[in-house]
Amino acid sequence: MLKGSRSWVFPAQPAILSTGVVGGPFEKNGNLASDFDRFYDDLWMGQGSYEKANRVLIEDAVEIALEKQALKKEDVQFFLSGDLINQITPSSFAARSYAIPYFGLFGACSTSMEGLALAGFLVNYQGAEKVVTGASSHNSATEKQFRYPTEYGGQKPPTAQWTVTGAGYAVVGSGVGMTAPCPRITSATIGKVIDMGLSDPFNMGGAMAPAAVDTMVGHFQDLGRDPSYYDLIVTGDLATIGRQTAMELMREKGYPLSEELYQDCGLLIYDKNQPVQSGASGPGCSATVLYGHLLNEMRKGTYKRILVVATGALLSPLTFQQGETIPCIAHAVSIEFI
Length: 338
Prior knowledge:
The protein is of the alpha/beta class. The protein contains 10 helices and 15 strands.
């Protein structure tokens, strides 16, 4: 059901039935290591390239999510996936392995919530019984594509962020017949492309913050809520600078967010002693933090209602080389433990 100008409310409340969360060696030493299902000890993951390793992350996370529900690939109607590599080839090659009808998504780091919103829509309106959705990123593959190969050892400014090597995927279904509480998708707000004229690829958080604010304000206006409805509001990867900018902009819009209520996945995943400059980034950031840590906290009773606002910078190496500014987007999904 459309609510307001750009939000969906899901009366059937599709359930997040299971998840698979996989990470690399750097994530293994982070704050949220206990919330991952599997780690790799090196970035190659037994493959001949970092891009192929990115595919392995996806395949592993999907496999884990299916196994937790004792599902076969034939039990799933659609596979929704995206990543940061050109033409989202890791996702497409993983889709080749699973042969599940496939929607390839690109929303940069917002892809995790783009997929979850669409999965909720499909299940809510009986377009599918079960959907697998998620997102991934690989640090070395992303650095090689957008900036410099990590072997180059280029220096980065304090505004730069560390791309997460990880994949988070979920099985979304109707949850009909379930008696125990579980995480359910109750609404989603679709973002608009916002470009404030920033062009520095080393300041993604600052570029994406206005898009996050636009989507959060749109969500509260469409649903007639204020931030206090939620126990936690979390953005995908604004990190230190972007989060502070978002808080200032939200205050100006009349929706002040407290330090306790509003957090960012890019500041949660890594330990303070890890050298990540401003914080974490990548589609795998929000995907692993949500499908691992945040859902585990919901099951523990820490949170009953959360709003996840995944943020994405829609640039490419080509647009950067041509001097374009950075268009950004954010998609929000509300999840309630009911």
